[in-house]
């Protein structure tokens, strides 16, 4: 099973991706996580992307497509994967289609988590305070100012992917404002697995 998860920041993609991968025993490919790992390890790419991410802007397609294409060579993606946070632009989606076509593969579904933008800020702030309460660090980009910019980037650059995947007949839209378990059940239903 090869899936793309689409949704605004704070829409619950990470939570749902975690559930799907543990149930279907497939890989979770989160570009946000990959990029945060690059920043934490102080790799050359990490240095380039750190300030971009802190500002809530998108990292260049070249860097992100490169990271994902490399990751798709891994052994653990053979049984399938959920792409979480990628593609985020139409040009990334076109690049992904090319990588898949070269491998003779296709996407089973692009699952869109539909949410109400005004309610997302509360979710993001809850995530930041939960991370703090657990003794962890909140993400550098989980603050109201950066969040507004991430939401703008989503609306401008990622929302057009909904039409892109609809035109390829793989789009499955889910109401992401339901409780997490209800969202998970709706996804199971929509992907038939
Ligand atoms: P969220 O979905 O909550 O916005 P992510 O963890 O998916 O957060 O991504 C965090 C940040 O990492 C983004 O705001 C962006 O700067 C960068 N990023 C992640 N994935 C991509 C991508 N596919 N293209 C460009 N930038 C990305």
General description of the model:
The N and C termini lie close together (9 Å). The chain has 9 helices and 5 strands; from the N terminus they run E-H-E-H-H-H-E-H-E-H-H-H-E-H. Helix 1 packs across helix 9 and helix 2 (31-40) packs across helix 3. It has a 5-stranded parallel sheet with strand order 2-3-1-4-5, with helices on both faces. The mean pLDDT is 94. By secondary structure, the protein is of the alpha/beta class. It has helices at 13-24, 31-40, 44-54, 61-71, 90-102, 117-133, 144-158, 160-167, 180-191; strands at 2-7, 27-30, 81-84, 109-114, 171-175. It is 56% helix and 13% strand. The protein has one domain: P-loop containing nucleotide triphosphate hydrolases (Rossmann fold, 3-Layer(aba) Sandwich). The radius of gyration is 16 Å and the shape is globular. The structure holds adenosine-5'-diphosphate.
List keywords for this structure.
193 residues, alpha/beta, Rossmann fold, 5-stranded parallel beta sheet, 9 helices, globular, binds adenosine-5'-diphosphate
Give me the secondary-structure topology.
Layout: E1 2-7, H1 13-24, E2 27-30, H2 31-40, H3 44-54, H4 61-71, E3 81-84, H5 90-102, E4 109-114, H6 117-133, H7 144-158, H8 160-167, E5 171-175, H9 180-191
Parallel strand pairs: 1-3, 1-4, 2-3, 4-5
Helix pairs in contact: 1-9, 2-3, 4-5, 6-7
The structure holds adenosine-5'-diphosphate (ADP).
